[in-house]
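We were asked to recover a plausible sequence for a given structure. The inputs and outputs are reproduced exactly as logged, with field labels preserved.

PROBLEM: sequence recovery
POSITIONS: 407
GIVEN STRUCTURE:
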């Protein structure tokens, strides 16, 4: 009996080993971050996913490329809680030379004591001036933040709009890149003449393209997928709120959109405009940013502006998205205004969606950041404004199924 017993034991052992091996393989694949299965595309005036309408209900957040891992995942969790399907953020934090002497950093890079929302980037930057090479260099180590952002968004089935650069100098942006070459900038001048050299100087344009190429072709070590092959990315955007004379801006957007598409045939490309150019070649969807405060109009007038912008969609056969909007919480009618605007977009088949400015979450100290100036911050506090946004986001799912829209 002993040999037979040994044989049975051996067989049993083999079965157990095989089962454990199978479980290990399953666990291995399960442990890999989830990845969206298809890329969002455009079809005339709407976005589509797997051939079905995709209505954007989204949020902006400005610190996802430098906040702590906990701060980043909290924003994503709050976006899910709201019912959002798209999150937008900016890349391209730029400084002078790391020694702070050869090329000056034009913004407050060392913002110790502030929190992430108040632009304490905690030493993270993507672009800098390298004195030894006498040119721009890329700090690849800071891309870990974006790797994590993409992987964590995929787990939550969120899509990302990644904007290559901010026009403004809050964290360097286009102004810092122009300053490397002592190009003239005129902050405070008329909005379309503040940094025109950025859009014409061959050196800066080459730097920008090198940065774009680096980002698009990067392979995410957490997902083992190149950014250009990852459907978690909803779209690339050329710049947040590029300001230049319209003719120059149209030319630059067309050139850079073509460049992005030469590297990546999968993703759609937006401009990131606050003042839209509807006919820019190569731009797949139109964005605009609207704040009654800065437009000096009432909420009702802003509602008319929404309708006016969306009417342009069928004329140019492109989706139109209200990509940023905000109305100070000090206004007692904030929630009422948001509901009016969101209802207008949901009912209008020419509107492709919205992203509110801006969703922020508790910082590492456990507190919400202060926002006493613009007062646009949105919190997951179950307040009236949160409920309006959440209801609109969930309605967006019905809109995507062509339910509840006037035709």
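RECOVERED SEQUENCE:
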């Amino acid at each position: 009996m002993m040999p037979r017993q040994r044989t049975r034991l051996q067989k049993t052992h083999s079965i157990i080993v095989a089962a454990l091996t199978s479980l290990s393989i399953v666990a291995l694949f399960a442990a890999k971050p989830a990845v969206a299965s298809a890329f969002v595309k455009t079809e005339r005036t709407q976005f589509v996913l797997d051939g079905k309408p995709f209505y954007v209900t989204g949020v902006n957040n400005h610190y996802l490329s430098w906040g702590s891992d906990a701060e980043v995942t909290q924003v994503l969790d709050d976006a899910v809680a709201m019912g959002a399907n798209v999150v937008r953020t900016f890349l391209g934090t730029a400084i002078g030379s790391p020694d702070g002497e050869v090329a000056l950093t034009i913004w407050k890079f060392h913002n110790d004591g502030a929190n992430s929302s108040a632009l304490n980037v905690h030493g993270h930057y993507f672009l800098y001036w390298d004195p030894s090479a006498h040119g721009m260099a890329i700090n690849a180590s800071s891309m870990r933040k974006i790797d994590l952002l993409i992987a964590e968004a995929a787990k939550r089935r969120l899509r990302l709009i990644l904007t290559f650069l901010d026009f403004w100098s809050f964290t360097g942006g286009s102004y810092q890149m122009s300053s490397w070459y002592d190009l003239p900038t005129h902050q405070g001048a008329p909005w379309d003449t503040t940094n025109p050299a950025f859009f014409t100087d061959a050196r800066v344009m080459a730097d920008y393209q090198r940065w774009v190429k680096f980002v698009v072709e990067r392979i995410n070590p957490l997902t083992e997928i190149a950014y250009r092959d990852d459907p978690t990315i909803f779209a690339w955007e050329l710049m947040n709120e590029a300001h230049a004379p319209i003719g120059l801006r149209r030319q630059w957007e067309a050139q850079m959109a073509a460049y992005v598409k030469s590297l990546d045939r999968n993703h759609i490309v937006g401009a990131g405009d606050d003042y839209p150019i509807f006919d820019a070649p190569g731009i797949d969807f139109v964005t605009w940013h609207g704040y009654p405060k800065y437009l000096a109009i009432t909420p009702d007038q802003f509602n008319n502006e929404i309708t006016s912008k969306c009417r342009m969609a069928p004329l140019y056969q492109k989706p139109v998205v209200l990509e940023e909007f905000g109305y100070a919480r000090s206004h007692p009618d904030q929630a009422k205004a948001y509901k009016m605007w969101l209802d207008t977009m949901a009912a209008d088949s020419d509107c492709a969606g919205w992203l509110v400015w801006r969703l922020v979450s508790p910082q590492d100290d456990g507190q919400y950041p202060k926002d006493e100036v613009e007062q646009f911050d949105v919190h997951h506090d179950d307040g009236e404004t949160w409920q309006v946004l959440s209801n609109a986001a969930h309605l967006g799912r019905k809109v995507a199924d062509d339910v509840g829209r006037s035709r």
